[in-house]
Amino acid sequence: MSRLTALSASLLTALLATSGALAAEIPLDQRRSNNDFVSADTRAMQSDDTANPGMLAVLDGEAIWNAKGGGQSSKSCADCHGDAAVSMKGVAARYPAFSAVLNRPVDLEQRINLSRTSDQKAEAFAFESKELLALTVYVAHQSRGMPDAVEETAQTKPFIEAGRTLFERREGQLNLSCAQCHDENWGKKLSGSIIPQAEPTGYPIYRLEWQEVGSLQRRLRECMYAVRAQPFDYGAPELVDLELYLMWRARGLPMETPAVRP
Amino acid sequence: MIGRALTHVPASAKRGDIIEIKALISHIMETGYRVGITGQPIPRDIIEDFVCTYNGEEIFRAKFYPAIAANPFMSFFTVATESGTIAFSWTDQHGATQVQTAAITVE
Asked: What value of ipTM does the predicted structure carry?
């Protein structure tokens, strides 16, 4: 808990130092990947495919992609989608995307689970399970280097707006919004770390603190916990709205999955 | 349980070249010092030995302890002497061993 106390103390210091001005969106040409704010060692680890531990999850995901799904259809992902390097190229850069089935946006994890339940007739993977993360990393990895292509459409606009509202809303005992750190104070220090812009283009990421791969929802929940708010449950529509807003906000930045973060 | 491994050896090198060898393996490296959410100790589970051989001759060995992070990564150098096989082996505390090999051509 001492780390959390230190975090809140420095959060307060950081915020006392800022003016009371309203959150201003970061201009598009000033958006920078979170990769720009990590140490040179961490960046080197990400860019070397033999040193990046997220690549182990890519291998796991490839095996799941080619294995029979275990459902009634006895089909693998590859049986329908073929070579992921072709069929999944650029897909993750468009997620979260609007699902006509659910009439709302779904993130990549949810989309994979939809295909599992409806096409493979198998049970959905649990959120944050090793299997779901591996498959998500594998699919998202096929878009590495491609620009984040989430667009605002008539269908997604209300959800992007809902995500923006959550991003700018103060919450928790510390009464902080996401925007106060990531729009207003990015580039400054918090507990010895540089506050990034919260651009989610490398998810699922390998986080050194976790010593494993984790989803964007896990990261968002952790931030909520850090400001002492009640985190939304995994799969909650609010979390997906936030993911959608963040991916739209990061549009144009290259996808990095699997990114390595401290 | 030992998982997947990623290794890197240059596919070809000139005789006498100094080459970098890299090896990453998936493993939780549980220290044995942590407790779970109900307070019960989480048993220690680590890889203890890593050995690299070049055409059967040992060129690098490391002993791992609980302070090594999950998914241990090793990077080291050797001199390319002859074409052949570079073999990596990891052995955990239960005695299970995983072996991975890579070929190198030396001209």
From this structure: 0.91
